[in-house]
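Shipment paperwork, digital attachment
Item: protein structure file
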Amino acid sequence: MNLARFRFALPLVVLASAGAYALQAVKVDPKLPEYKVVSGVSGNIKSIGSDTLNNLMTLWTEGFKKLYPAVSTEVEGKGSTTAMGDARRSVFAGSDAA
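Attachment content:
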């Protein structure tokens, strides 16, 4: 067996195995009721932080806006280290505490 091929294939096998295990390990409580859309939901959702999660957050917000079009969403991936300060500024900007 070519060692170079083995070095390339091994991480793929490990990742595939871990992914398969993760899918099997997730169990949802069957007693949870199905989600129902409610009326009157509006406002702003701002996701600030890890640029690694930008694609996931964008997909989530697009799906959320289909259910609640009156909600404004914004996804910013500036890096995990910026999230806390930006979140504090955002919270205080919209409150009387500032």
